[in-house]
Inverse folding.
């Protein structure tokens, strides 16, 4: 006769079974986006999923379908002047047969377990790990589909954003992290059957760092930072059987060539990844003027300070850590972006073109803090300068990026609107960002960039720091952020 189990034994047996079930959880990965960076990171993710036992081997990648003119070897454009061998092919077919993204990452072989899929529903079906790597402007239309078809009801379902940008609440104007917007969009609690799901919360971390896509794809040594705080049933995953933070880190970690460190400061890492693109425009202006390393070093120092101030001013409730700025996502990413990368490259071309054609020289705008004291510039001249700048950016983006988007200019405009709004009046506290905006959009002379490279110190009467002054100002003026962003 078998003795009955006491309640304590039954509880321990249930816990053991639960742990065994967790250990058997296999994650399914979907990469949402297939541009330069998405294709580059797939070279690492694909190899890691093939070797790690807790990831499915096949990795779906959602690809926006395009018809590519390629030769018999799959090279875009056909190579040379011989048009007889050229034909139109679907990008997904080229990627799945020749294992190369010939448009956005030519010359790099992708792992054979990366499957390009043009249908978003099929790409993310039943996925538990969603890697977001596309312009954030596309998210509002995509998230409802992803939420419905991914395995979003699983307590292990999570996201990692590789998107370097920032969003803004439509009602309060406050900055919103892209990762927060993804969480809000995924937590609408409706599964694919239309059933409410209220007990599982989707969580999103970020992967940020000094990661030039082509160099990563070529296997050159670099570092990156995973910022996340994934939990299971509301408990820190580090205290449970499965450490989702470590498991996710291993998805991207590929030593000795791609080394990933983990931190918990999601807000700090993400803001660094967004605002470094703004500072990179300034670095491009410096290069376009032919200025040297001393000037650029000064720009980097002031730029990092303004990024830090922005983090503390708007996200101090998210646990901003000063050590974040010394991680790969901070100083290292800023250095890399200001010496390479698309934003610096396009800004250099912008500066050279402005210099070459002497745009805004005889009618240059030389305003005060709010462009109100320049009586020599008419409204018509101002509008003409703004139009010329906009057209120049559009042309450079088209010629140099071949269909990809320039995030630095978009972020610069959005951050300027935030800081210069009548409710905040903070733009004078960020002289470098202010100057980069004026050169980019208002026709101010490119050589004025050096005037923006200084650290602002607010004149206070009680001897307190500028940061304390601004924190008090923000506490008075900015209402609490909403629980959900209104546009996702």
């Amino acid at each position: 006769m078998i003795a009955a189990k006491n309640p304590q034994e039954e509880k321990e047996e249930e816990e053991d079974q639960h742990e065994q079930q967790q250990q058997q959880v296999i994650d399914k990965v979907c990469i949402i986006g297939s541009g330069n960076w998405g294709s580059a990171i797939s070279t690492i993710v694909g190899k890691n999923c093939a070797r790690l036992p807790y990831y499915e081997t096949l990795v779906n990648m959602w690809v926006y379908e395009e018809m590519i003119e390629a030769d018999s070897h799959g090279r875009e454009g056909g190579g040379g002047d011989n048009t007889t061998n050229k034909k139109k092919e679907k990008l997904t077919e080229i990627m799945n047969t020749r294992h190369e993204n010939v448009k956005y990452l030519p010359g790099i072989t992708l792992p054979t377990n990366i499957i390009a899929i043009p249908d978003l529903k099929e790409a993310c079906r039943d996925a538990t790990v969603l890697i977001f790597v596309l312009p954030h402007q596309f998210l509002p239309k995509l998230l409802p589909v992803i939420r419905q078809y991914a395995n979003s009801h699983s307590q292990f379902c999570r996201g990692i954003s590789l998107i370097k940008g920032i969003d803004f609440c439509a009602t309060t104007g406050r900055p919103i992290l892209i990762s927060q917007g993804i969480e809000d969009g995924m937590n609408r609690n409706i599964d694919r059957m239309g059933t409410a799901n209220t007990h599982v919360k989707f969580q999103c971390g970020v992967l940020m760092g000094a990661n030039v896509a082509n160099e990563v794809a070529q296997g050159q040594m670099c570092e990156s930072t995973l910022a996340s705080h994934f939990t299971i049933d509301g408990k820190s995953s580090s205290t449970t059987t499965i450490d989702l933070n470590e498991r996710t880190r291993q998805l991207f970690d590929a030593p000795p060539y791609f080394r990933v460190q983990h931190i918990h400061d999601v807000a700090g890492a993400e803001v660094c990844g967004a605002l470094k693109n703004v500072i990179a425009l300034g670095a491009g202006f410096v290069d376009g003027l032919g200025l040297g390393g001393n000037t650029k070093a000064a720009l980097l120092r002031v730029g990092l300070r303004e990024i830090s101030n922005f983090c503390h001013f708007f996200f101090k409730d998210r646990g901003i850590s000063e050590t974040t700025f010394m991680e790969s996502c901070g100083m290292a990413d800023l250095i890399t972006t200001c010496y390479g990368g698309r934003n610096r490259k396009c800004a250099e071309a912008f500066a050279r073109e402005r210099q070459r054609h002497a745009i805004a020289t005889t009618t240059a705008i030389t305003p005060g803090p709010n462009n109100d004291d320049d009586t020599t510039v008419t409204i018509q001249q101002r509008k003409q300068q703004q139009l010329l700048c906009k057209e120049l950016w559009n042309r450079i983006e088209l010629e140099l990026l071949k269909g990809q988007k320039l995030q630095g200019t978009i972020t610069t405009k959005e951050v300027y609107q935030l800081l210069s709004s009548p409710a905040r009046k903070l733009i004078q506290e960020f002289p470098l960002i202010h100057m980069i905006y004026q050169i980019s959009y208002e026709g101010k002379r490119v050589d004025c960039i050096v005037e923006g490279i200084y650290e602002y110190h607010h004149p206070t009467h009680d001897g307190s720091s500028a940061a304390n002054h601004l924190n008090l100002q923000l506490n008075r003026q900015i209402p609490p952020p909403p629980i959900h962003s209104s546009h996702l």
Remarks:
- Confidence is low (pLDDT under 50) at residues 359-375, 460-467, 474-488.
- The chain has two domains: 25-66+103-262, 273-456.
- The two ends are 61 Å apart (CA to CA).
- The CA atoms of residues 50 and 427 lie 49 Å apart.
